[in-house]
Amino acid sequence: MTLTASSSSSSSATSTSAPRLRKALKSASPSLAVERELWAAGHEVVVGIDEVGRGAWAGPLTIGAAVVPRDRRVYKVRDSKMLTEREREAMFDRIAEWCVTWAVGHATHDECDQLGMSEAQRLAARRAIDGLGVAPDQVLIDGNWDFVGGGITRKIVKGDATCLSIAAASILAKVTRDRIMRAQAAEFPGFDFEANKGYPCPRHKLALAGYGPTSIHRRSWVFMDHMPWTGVPRYVAPGPQGSLFDP
């Protein structure tokens, strides 16, 4: 499976009506407060990024990157985790058309195994930012770990719930990865990838016990040590200095 960054840009917001949000979400709207602060300080290109798939057992690690406009809004954007799958799908095209530019970058399951999650996350972030077609002046990251670097990042704890650029990126990343995993479900019946998207759950664990890992599973994950079958060993990345016992 080859994964490449995808991007889109638009100069006008879509006219498609936004989905009705559940009452519980009506007071949880992210804002442009951080973006406006940075724009006022002279930072023209402010990018929000967010990741999805870090805790999955199968499929890619995916990072979304979004540059939102200053003078137009798309209402009802929320942190992707707060929305149902149907709500996220309904918002995806609206957000994609609204953004000045956006992109999604992936690290494959093999890259997650070979590089480790930290480096895979950096790789996916580079691919997403490169896919924007513009050089960022500032990058807004959800959480407290800077996986972009370059001295241009601002970490925002719970940024996907409070920062509009990050919330938009979270939906773009989540919907893109979910679509990939739904497409893979037909190739691997029994794993319920269309429902669990490669994350741990009882049905996923049962399928692993019965069938073993698929070609899109991350074989360095610790679940490999607890499989009742033999035949496919856990992948262990070689250390940079090798082993004293290597021939």
Which key terms come to mind for this protein?
Nucleotidyltransferase, domain 5; 6 strands; disordered N terminus; alpha/beta; about 15% strand; about 250 residues; globular; disordered C terminus
Describe what you observe in this structure.
- With 247 residues, the chain is of the alpha/beta class.
- It has a domain at 22-185: Ribonuclease H-like superfamily/Ribonuclease H (Nucleotidyltransferase, domain 5).
- It is built from 8 helices and 6 strands, in the order βαββαβααββαααα.
- It has helices at residues 33-40, 85-98, 109-115, 117-130, 159-162, 164-185, 193-196, 202-211, and strands at 6-8, 46-52, 61-67, 101-107, 138-142, 153-156.
- Strands 1-4-3-2-5-6 form a 6-stranded mixed sheet.
- A hairpin with an 8-residue loop joins strand 2 and strand 3.
Question: What can be said about this structure in brief?
Answer:
The protein is α/β, with parallel strands linked by helices and 247 residues long.
